[in-house]
UniProtKB/TrEMBL annotation:
A Pfam family it matches: HAD
Protein name (Swiss-Prot/TrEMBL): phosphoserine phosphatase
Organism phylogeny: Bacteria, Bacillati, Bacillota, Bacilli, Lactobacillales
One of the record's GO molecular function terms: L-phosphoserine phosphatase activity
Residues at the active site: 11 (nucleophile), 13 (proton donor)
InterPro entries found in the cross-reference section: HAD-like_SerB (IPR050582), HAD-like_sf (IPR036412), HAD_sf (IPR023214), PSP (IPR004469)
Species of provenance: Streptococcus macacae NCTC 11558
EC numbers, comma separated: 3.1.3.3
Amino acid sequence: MTNIKGLLVMDVDSTLVQEEVIDLLGDEAGLGKQVAAITERAMRGELDFKQALEERVAGLKGLPESIFDKVYARLHFNKGAKKLVAELHARGYKVGLVSGGFHETVDRLGKEADIDYVKANHLEVADGLLTGNTYGDIVTKEVKLQKLKDWAAENQLELSQTIAMGDGANDLPMIQAAGIGIAFCAKPIVREQAPYQINQADLYQVIEIIDAIKEDDK
């Protein structure tokens, strides 16, 4: 086994990609504004994430399974996303995604960007239609933190050798636990509490933070 040097775990919606997938699904269901308003409040930490997710997913009932192809076509990686992953791999890092979004799109993003690990929610489908329910564990802030710990342990890494990055309140526990915690174009509550910030939508700036820290440690 190659000696792994580090691990980056990042959020997906509004971090890896520019969009919020749940909002796009809501848009397709004709509930765009209502769903986006709930998302915004949840990201600011004003609503319980699990409750907010269930409320939004319920509105998707009856959408065809083919909706995922339609939504995937509307997604855009943030600037520097694939370049960041390639550079981290070249430096001996693993990269993981943790998302309050859905495996139906996150798995495809992970494959396209050559990501090592993926954890997201599952939407239930029956007879080719969304049921308005999820199944399995909901990816809460606690689950995001746990995956950071699990993937670090799997690679014999200390948490001090990890990086965590996201934009919403449910990313804060992993951001605060990682060796390098980064708020990416984040909500005010996250910017206030994260050790590092990237305020331009350019993911490659993670490399600049890593290199600056290394320089300071010399």
